[in-house]
Specification:
By secondary structure, the chain is α/β, with parallel strands linked by helices. The chain folds into four domains: 150 residues, DNA polymerase beta, N-terminal domain-like (DNA polymerase, domain 1, Orthogonal Bundle); 90 residues, Beta Polymerase, domain 2 (2-Layer Sandwich); 81 residues, DNA polymerase, thumb domain (Beta Polymerase, domain 3, 2-Layer Sandwich); 240 residues, TIM Barrel, CATH 3.20.20. The protein contains 25 helices and 16 strands. The strands form four sheets. Strands 10-11-12-13-14-15-16 form a seven-stranded parallel sheet. Strands 2-4-7-6-5 form a five-stranded mixed sheet, sandwiched between helices. The chain has a two-stranded antiparallel sheet with strand order 1-3. It is globular, with a radius of gyration of 28 Å. 41% of the residues are buried.
């Protein structure tokens, strides 16, 4: 078990002991041990192997054995027994904002409640307000926390979180006290979903910034209002945290709170190898005698005023936030092999979009106008085929009429945007396609997708999709796992075999840029593209506004280390037409 996991367990033991009302000195010992490990820069394994853990200041003799057991075995009987000794409902209550171990214990001792439902009933009856140290305000806050608990526990789509974050960041930057401000965390790393929002601001006068932050429009709960950190919640449960730091600490805090944890660990290890300790506060030189006695060393910025300079200090190219996932990005930065990532401005057009011919909400003309407003050179329209009857899918006859309508539109000169005629054709349960070969041949391109029989075994689904990939008319594979983020798990499919088949048959796999899909997952793209897989970023737009989803698809392409040459959408109209023609 690694150090971070051990810290988590020690911190949980603190809360569990508080729930039991254990000895305060015992509780404090575990809390101190967790803090010591958290600030320890040297390698925990090396200290344990050398038998020196007991000599580390703040690690008492009672903790040495437990930490060593967790490190070597990943288990601790004391922790398991402690957790099992407490009613699960009491532990569940800790998820309610504002309720820590001590408060839950106090409520339990007074009322005997052991579940959130019982706690709600006690609050509604006014019983919690009667407990010394609580009162009506605390009771109302608990009820509010219970009511919002489900929403609070959820993650949020990046697209939704961005919409909340952008005005906050704009507001911060407009404040006269703020020298600079950035969003951090998983939002900045362009993760598919975001747990909460993190903001870092540089200033020498934090209080006015904090006061503004907690009084923004849309704030429904202030969970912390401190001198250098505040936290608020918005309707829908999204939490936002703000930290204000001096300007000389800003690049270090921004890097640290951007993460990820794995990236930060690797950077700290690199710093130690060069004789430095790296933290959210800055850099300090580390000497062996200081490691032993734990004495404080002054933290300095070493003239670093940006993340770029921070990476350069350690002999690295600047690593884009979206690549900071602990997946060999530091090695690539050291050897000068970071990719020149695709940019939103590289996108010349998009495919896999729907009109009123099936389940879309806009006509050919309206979709073309929206594409032109986005600066696109072309647009692919790919309505559903007839098997998707719930989406008013097109029969063979209707597909051919759509082809004629698109041809007439292009010839009219009504728009500068060229429309490519496509279809999103269902892959039937046996792997056959939903349209006649002659119909598919009349189109510029075809996207093949699974929309039914999701419960097939992995072997059946994999064979089904490969059969479709091997059909000569298949140019793109749509949303290859069928996942709906935060709602539906992917169906069972061997994606490595699917990628192999796509490469062998020169079939594109899309990044479905709908923020609820973002499929194929970014973790697979680097290796697949290196082997020759072509990508297309497709918003799967069902209205004009959804064309903008391509931006979320670019995020995933960037996280997947994709360069413009690996993405069909970066080609101009003639280049796309040529690719389609050569693929036939």
């Amino acid at each position: 078990m690694n150090k971070a996991d051990i810290i988590d367990i020690l911190e949980e033991i603190v809360v569990l002991l508080e729930l039991k009302g254990d000895n305060p000195f015992k509780i404090r010992a575990y809390a101190t041990g967790a803090r010591v490990l958290e600030t320890m820069e040297e390698d925990l394994g090396a200290i344990i192997d050398a038998g020196e853990l007991g000599s580390v200041k703040g690690i008492g003799s009672a903790l040495v054995d437990k930490i060593e057991t967790l490190y070597t075995t990943g288990e601790l009987e004391y922790y398991t027994d402690l957790r099992d000794s407490i009613a699960p409902g009491l532990i569940e209550m800790l998820e309610i904002p504002g309720l820590g171990g001590k408060k839950v214990k106090k409520i339990y001792d007074a009322l005997g409640v052991e579940s959130i439902d019982a706690l709600r009933a006690a609050c509604e009856a006014g019983e919690v307000a009667a407990i010394k140290g609580f009162g009506k305000k605390s009771e109302d806050k608990i009820l509010s926390g219970i009511a919002n608990r489900e929403a609070y526990a959820k993650r949020h789509h990046w697209w939704t979180a961005r919409a909340v974050a952008e005005p906050i960041l704009e507001g911060l930057r407009s404040l006269p006290e703020v020298e600079c401000a950035e969003a951090a965390g998983s939002l900045r790393r362009l993760r598919e979903t975001v747990g909460d929002l993190d903001f870092i601001a540089a200033s020498s006068d934090a209080q006015p910034i904090m006061d503004w932050f907690v009084t923004q429009v849309g704030v429904v709960e202030v969970t912390a209002h401190g001198q250098t950190k505040s936290s608020v919640r918005f309707e829908g449960g999204l939490q936002a945290d703000l930290r204000v730091v001096p300007a000389d600490q800003f690049p270090f805090a921004l890097h640290h709170f951007t993460g990820s944890k794995d990236h930060n660990v690797a950077m700290r290890q690199r710093a130690l190898a060069k004789g430095y300790s790296l933290s959210e506060w800055g850099l300090k030189e580390v000497r062996s005698e200081e490691l032993k006695d734990g004495s404080e060393v002054e933290i300095q910025g070493h003239g670093i005023t940006s993340e770029k300079q921070l990476f350069e200090f350690f002999g690295l190219e600047e690593i884009a936030p979206e690549l900071r996932e602990g997946l060999a990005e530091i090695e690539a930065a050291e050897s000068g092999k970071l990719p020149s990532l695709i940019e939103p401005s590289d996108i010349r057009g998009v495919f896999h979009n729907h009109t009123t011919a099936s389940d879309g909400r806009a006509t050919i003309e309206e979709m073309a106008a929206a594409a032109e407003a986005l600066g696109f050179d072309y647009l692919g329209l790919a309505d559903h085929s007839k098997a998707s009857f719930q989406a008013n899918g097109l029969s063979d006859e209707r597909v051919l009429k759509m082809v004629d309508a698109i041809r007439a539109f292009n010839e009219s000169g009504e728009s500068s945007v060229h429309i490519f005629s496509g279809i999103e054709c269902d892959i039937l349960p046996d792997g056959s396609l939903d349209l006649e070969d002659s119909t598919l041949e009349a189109l510029d391109y075809a996207v093949m997708s699974v929309h039914s029989s999701f419960s097939q075994s992995e072997q059946e689904m994999t064979a089904r999709v490969i059969r479709a990939i091997e059909h000569p008319a298949t140019m793109m594979l749509g949303h290859p796992t069928g996942r709906i983020l935060l709602r539906r798990e992917p169906y069972k499919i061997d994606l490595q075999k699917i990628i192999d088949a796509a490469i062998a048959n020169r079939v594109i796999i899309e990044i479905n840029a709908n923020p609820h899909r973002l499929d194929m997952d970014w973790r697979l793209w680097r290796g697949a593209a290196e082997r020759g897989l072509m990508c297309a970023i497709n918003p799967d737009a069902h209205n004009t506004q959804s064309l903008e989803f391509y931006l979320a698809g670019v995020n995933i392409a960037r996280k997947g280390w994709l360069v413009p040459e690996a993405v069909l959408n970066t080609r101009d109209c003639a280049g796309v037409a040529q690719w389609f023609a050569e693929r036939r």
